[in-house]
Design brief:
By secondary structure, the protein is an all-alpha fold. The protein has a domain of about 170 residues: Recoverin, domain 1 (Orthogonal Bundle), CATH 1.10.238.10. It contains 8 helices and no strands. The chain is globular, with a radius of gyration of 20 Å. It is found in: Cytoplasm. Keywords: Calcium, Cytoplasm, Metal-binding, Repeat. One of its GO terms (molecular function) is calcium ion binding.
């Protein structure tokens, strides 16, 4: 998702993850100002294959592009990476923050943050999603969330909620497998149906055949992170990488932090 493509209002929030201090990746740099008014995206089935990873563009005039490492063209390639979305403190959130800050420390623990975040059907956020949010927004690495960090987190989830509602076409309050596939297509992924189903089942942690808001966010962010790991090694952007066993294990361990 660091392969830049034209603006798409269906894409992930401009910053799928908040900016991290000291980050040097191009995925954390704001895009240049746009000079034109964006146009609505085409329906997934009518989007030109040239802008879709997994559907290679026609070769340039004068010959075919030789496949890298004598391999066939990639069946799936990473889409562009959105960048982070900052937000100022919102005083309207202070009453909520104080209500869940039970010990009055001005910092929300994992348990306290869990009390503030619920899905549309009032079910609690998955514990892993809560921990993911704390790791993403705990800028001082205290293991807790202060008010300013909470405001950033709230704004971030509001952006995701807009996307969730867009793809929840039947207004069920959950994302079905078909809706999840439509979301990935809109995010410029081109993945095989078996893999999309595997990803969906992995994050359908309640085994209900649907994905709640918190698990949808968790799945998309996890996919984005895995994509970023792949991109780091895919220098020629051909959809293939060569990785040593220890490098592979190191990248897996980093994702578990």
């Amino acid at each position: 998702m660091a392969y830049r493509q034209p603006y798409d209002p269906d894409a992930l929030p401009r910053f799928a993850e908040p900016d991290r201090p000291g980050a040097t990746s191009s995925s954390t740099q704001p895009p240049p100002p746009r000079q034109e008014k964006p146009t609505p995206p085409l329906p997934p089935q009518t989007r030109p294959s040239a802008s879709s990873y997994g559907h290679p563009s026609p070769p340039p005039t004068g010959g075919q592009r030789p496949p890298a490492h004598n391999r066939p063209p990639a069946s799936s390639r990473p889409p562009p990476t959105p960048g982070p979305e900052g937000s100022a403190s919102d005083p309207t959130l202070l009453p909520l923050f104080r209500a869940v800050d039970k010990d009055g420390t001005g910092q929300l623990s994992e348990k306290e943050l869990s009390a503030a975040l619920v899905n549309g059907d009032w079910t609690a956020f998955d514990t892993q999603t809560i921990r993911m949010m704390i790791r993403m927004f705990d800028s001082d690495r205290s293991g807790t969330i202060g008010f300013d960090e909470f405001c950033g987190l709230w704004s971030f989830l509001a952006s995701w909620r807009t996307l969730f509602d867009r793809f929840d076409v039947d207004r069920s309050g959950n994302i079905s497998l078909d809706e999840f596939n439509d979301a990935l297509v809109a995010f410029r992924y081109r993945l095989s149906p078996p893999f999309v189903e595997l990803l969906f089942r992995t994050y359908d942690k309640r085994q209900e055949g649907v994905m709640s808001f918190d698990l949808f966010v968790q799945a998309c962010i996890s996919l984005k992170r895995m994509t970023d790991v792949f991109k780091k090694y895919d220098d020629d952007r051909d959809g293939y990488i060569t990785l040593s066993f220890e490098d592979f294990l190191s990248e897996i361990l980093k994702q578990l932090k």
